[in-house]
Predict the 3D structure of the following.
Amino acid sequence: MPVHVGRAAWAALSLLVLALPAVAAGADRHPPPDPRSGPAPPGAPDGWVVTASAANVRRDHSVDEPVLGLARCGDRVEIVDTWISPLGARWSRVVVERTGVTGWVLWSLLHRPGATGRAAPPCPSPPDGRTAGGR
């Protein structure tokens, strides 16, 4: 019996309609971690400092996640994990030594003076000559 083009196209379209919900459900999940993520390399956990005026410590590696605490410029942190987003943003899971808060911080806000042989950049000056505490 000959195959009708219309019937074959209709069958293919029916299968596509059945497969779309499964594809859409997969889009809601977070992307898998980058293979380059994971524990920091040996020697990395010590010597990291915050170089921005402040860094939000978040529950997870996203700017949409709640802030658990704040790390101020000059605070020493221990890096316990790293993650690189599909878009290339690098996050570090840290423990802030001063407060004990644990969470995720953008890696670009941190500096490891011993790795480059240079001291950490100076902390930014607050506006209007006020102290970092806002006084």
About this structure: The radius of gyration is 24 Å.
